Amino acid sequence: MKARARDAASGEALSGALFVAPYLLVFLVLLVYPLVSGIWLSLHKADLFGGSQYIGFENYVRLFKDDVFRKAVWNTCYFVLLTVPALTVIGLALALALNNGTRRSAVLRGLFFSSSVLSVTIVTLIWRMVLVPDGGLIADLLASLHLPSVPFLSDARLAMPAVALTTIWWCIGLPMMLFLAALQQVPKDLYEAAALDNAGWWRTLLRVTLPSIRRTALVVVVIEIILQFQLFGQAQIMTLGGPNNASLPIVLFIYQIGFQRWDIGYAAAASEILFCIILAAAMTQYLASRGRS
Amino acid sequence: MGQTRHGPGRIAATAALALAALIMAAPLLWTLLLSLKSNAELLRGTGTAFAPPYTLQNYADIFGHSAVFGWLLNSAIVSLGVTFGVLALSSLAGYGFARLRFPGRDVIFILVLFGLAIPEQSVIIARHQMFSALSLHNTYGGLIFPGLAAPFGVFLMTQYFRAMPKELEEAAWLDGASRFRTFWKILLPLSLPAQATLGIFTFLATWNDYWWPLISATNSDMYTLTVGVASSQMNFAQTNGLGFLMAQAVFASVPILIVYVIFQRYIVAGVSRAAA
Amino acid sequence: MRRALACLTMLGALLGCAPKQAGPVQITLQRFFGACDAEYGSSTNVAAAEGECGIVTTLINKFNAENPDIHVKVNVVYWPGYDQLSAELAAGDPPDLVTMHQSVISDYAQRRLIMPLDDGLASVGVSPASFTRAAREGVMRGGHVYALPFDNWAPLWQINMNLFRAAGLVQGGKPVLPHSPEELLAQARQFKRATGKPYLLQSMVNEPAAYARNLFTFLMQQNAVIFPDPHHIRLSTPQAHRVLALFKQIYDEGLTSKDQDYTAATSGFLNGQGGVYLVGTWMIGAYEQASKQPGSPLANGYAVVPYPQLYPGRDATYADGHSWVMPTAKRSAQKTRAIFRLLRFLKDNDFEWSRTGHLPAYRDVIDSARWRALPHRAGIAGLVDAATPLPPGVQRQFIIQQIVSEEMESAITGQKPINTALADAQRRVNDVLFNLL
């Protein structure tokens, strides 16, 4: 660390290596090694309690034929489609509405971000008591209007939207903050020029604001895709993936296969598929936006 | 932003904002109301929560029921552990990648960036196997180590150090300070704003982590808050303890909400910086 | 005041423990049944405790108080806790005693993940001869005892007699029960006309098992072979179709509650929302309490009976039971002795546990006057003979129940034709059994 030969390239190389080494060690041991050993594991019929046998790609073949897994993949994509556009649009709308110095906006910004700091078990506990048809907040409100309750968590068509609603409520803070930050970076003179042109609110939004925060929008979409593909806790606690697997996401599938059926080779194979899907989705989004600019 | 909006559009926007705020606040208020009702009354119907009588009995019960304090302590230890670990590792590596030339630097950096796309979930099965072999489950280390590998911090700190003027450290060099001393005395203090951002986000993410503690912290002494709350949630006892359960949820949220209120300013500033 | 005292006692206990002596052997006991420390955390008064959580908590407190050389540390898990147990076993760090359903024992015993208890139980004077038949079948595999049985349980018809009376379904102080599917439908319609409420209350949302228990019960009553061998299930049958069609008709005609999860149905019955709640023995104690409270919809109007025999095959009810297992691990002789002392204590207190409503696992308790003197026990004593578990060799019974329940839910709520759901359930279960490692 105390290499005195600071002008020598070798000294710099040594200290550079020393600065980077601690993280690199952790990175290799805790991320790269599990990734590689997970891939290796996925080629085995392997048991949670030891014992495994090499079977090539058989787990993957099984996955492609597994109706429940295919459903889980579809469910997860559906969930991403339900949440990511909503989070992006609502996040942007809130940012536009709250991008000013008033006290009211400060309080509302605080409110909209506050749910993000709650843990998933608390959020789901709260929302179960909002959504359950018997004794939930919505049901109680409907009952006071003499309307029948809605079985959000038990109707196959409503379960995933209900989980998505919960997730949007929980996660809306981050996109809003990111957009707020971006709005503050838009050069003031652009707005002044637009005002001189007598451009209306919509026109200013379309011509000045949106083009200026395009990069942030991309960041928001990519971050949210990566996050929402990893749906787990909300589904596990609110619906157990039901009814009839209608809200079973890939990660819960992996958990069930690994820790309930003890079939970790199969679970590892599903993990690798998840990895590929997330990588592909994020890359597509990234490349698409690059191509456009 | 265009301040020129008037008339019906403005009213509609205000109404939409008010509705959004209501949707945001209602579940929280509902939870608070439920937590203030006796379990016996809730059993007759949760509609009773809209009217008095209210009671603090559920909160009094929490103080007799010590488990939640243990969960809070574990969450705090693990979250702080991960936060300090990430800050130390990321700052060192970020400086290394940003300022020092060594063979393979750029390739290694790209590999680390590639790590950003590895979802936690896709390595969790293999990592569980590995930690089993090392007997790391049900230890603080077992809960802290996985959080240290996330490449985001390295990425953030590298960008931050790259943006700093080189003159700062060159002056120190000329005075004969070592690399590490230069880093420690000059660059690190200057990077505090970035450290704050990274620290807050790492803390929040770790505090809310669920799956890994669920399968690693299986001993109730080691439960973190998320796992502890889950363990009391899906139990059949829920039927007659709804008020208590909700009080526990409120109580468990208070510390993190306080942290949030105190650091709110830094969170906003931090997000701006990360986005920029 | 009582709570303040409880707090002080706790504090005292904590301080008392502070200077760690060479001291007590620690046993880690992992259980479901929920957490209720706020109410029972420091109580050793077992006789005053109510419900599964209250009784098991006070039992352990009492054992700790009576055995200063042993400390039982309790790990409460998310029901049923098997994911967590699997994670612990994989990590090589399992607890010392764990609650386990008898239907699950095969999974772990077959893999030697739990230990045979024969010698240890003999050393504390517990012989399998003292178990009831159902308990013995529940905990023995290949001639070895793999668990200390705690109870047997079965789903029951829990009846709101006040509503039954209003519907004209009480004769001579006893509920009128159906003897065939047609009678069931007729009585349910009569009930609905008279009270405007559904005849059945069922947990139908996020329900991992209740559907399957109903199916298994009514298949057993038709003498249907559910498992021709432990690796195959047979569900694409006219018998199974008959059962699903019955439940679907009940659902379609609005003769059952819909959209309630377990919690909602459990409190719904308390609030008089329906006539019969299909739930297990564990609710008897709580509902009996409610029936003593004036003003409760159940006041002086609660009865409980086994599932009626709807099909002419035989009188059978699907049953399971709770038990205590010892995961395989290296333990000192001292610790092992402590564990068996605790098991003996649990066996000796099986009567207290049976106050929950579960059937005792020991013949001396079930034959005892004090058990028969508990409310409603005479009515359900017949369960001892009717109780029928799935064949003990069948592994992954919890997953099987879950798959069957999912498919039944689809069929009953009309998302899939009955035949498709049954075929899917059969295929999915057989796939799980085929892929067993």
Question: What's the layout of helices and strands?
Answer:
The complex is a heterotrimer of chains A (293), B (276) and C (437).
Chain A: H1 9-41, E1 44-46, E2 52-54, H2 58-65, H3 67-98, H4 103-114, H5 120-131, H6 137-144, H7 159-171, H8 173-185, H9 188-196, H10 201-212, H11 214-228, H12 233-238, H13 250-259, H14 264-292
Antiparallel strand pairs in A: 1-2
Chain B: H1 7-35, H2 39-44, H3 57-64, H4 67-99, H5 105-115, H6 120-133, H7 140-148, H8 152-162, H9 167-174, H10 179-190, H11 192-207, H12 211-216, H13 225-233, H14 242-275
Helix pairs in contact in B: 1-14, 3-14, 4-7, 4-8, 4-11, 4-13, 9-10, 11-14, 13-14
Chain C: H1 2-17, E1 25-31, H2 37-40, H3 51-66, E2 70-76, H4 82-90, E3 97-101, H5 105-110, H6 118-123, H7 133-139, E4 140-141, E5 144-145, E6 148-149, E7 151-152, E8 155-160, H8 161-166, E9 170-171, E10 174-175, H9 181-195, E11 200-201, H10 210-221, H11 238-252, H12 262-270, E12 276-280, H13 284-291, E13 302-306, E14 317-318, E15 322-325, H14 333-348, H15 350-354, E16 359-360, H16 363-366, H17 369-372, H18 377-380, H19 383-386, E17 387-388, H20 397-412, H21 418-434
Parallel strand pairs in C: 1-2, 1-3, 11-12, 14-17
Antiparallel strand pairs in C: 3-15, 4-5, 6-15, 7-16, 8-12, 8-13, 9-10
Offer a concise description of the structure.
In chain B, helix 4 (67-99) crosses helix 8, helix 9 runs antiparallel to helix 10 (179-190) and helix 11 (192-207) runs antiparallel to helix 14 (242-275).
What labels describe this entry?
heterotrimer; A: about 290 residues; mainly alpha; MetI-like fold; two-stranded antiparallel sheet; 2 strands; globular; disordered N terminus; B: about 280 residues; 14 helices; about 0% strand
What does this structure look like?
The complex is a heterotrimer of chains A (293), B (276) and C (437). Helix content of chain A is 72%, strand content 2%. Chain A has 14 helices and two strands. A two-stranded antiparallel sheet of chain A has the order 1-2. In chain A, helix 3 (67-98) packs antiparallel against helix 11. The relative contact order of chain A is 0.13. Chain B has helices at residues 7-35, 39-44, 57-64, 67-99, 105-115, 120-133, 140-148, 152-162, 167-174, 179-190, 192-207, 211-216, 225-233, 242-275. The mean pLDDT of chain B is 84. Chain C has two domains: 21-149 and 322-382, D-Maltodextrin-Binding Protein, domain 2, CATH 3.40.190.10; 155-319 and 395-434, D-Maltodextrin-Binding Protein, domain 2, CATH 3.40.190.10. Helices cover 46% and strands 14% of the residues of chain C. Chain C has helices spanning 2-17, 37-40, 51-66, 82-90, 105-110, 118-123, 133-139, 161-166, 181-195, 210-221, 238-252, 262-270, 284-291, 333-348, 350-354, 363-366, 369-372, 377-380, 383-386, 397-412, 418-434, and strands at residues 25-31, 70-76, 97-101, 140-141, 144-145, 148-149, 151-152, 155-160, 170-171, 174-175, 200-201, 276-280, 302-306, 317-318, 322-325, 359-360, 387-388. The longest helix of chain C has 17 residues, at 418-434. Chain C is globular, with a radius of gyration of 22 Å. The chains are: A mainly alpha (293), B mainly alpha (276), C alpha/beta (437). Chains A and B meet through helix 1, helix 3, helix 4, helix 5 and helix 6 of A and helix 1, helix 4, helix 5, helix 6 and helix 7 of B.
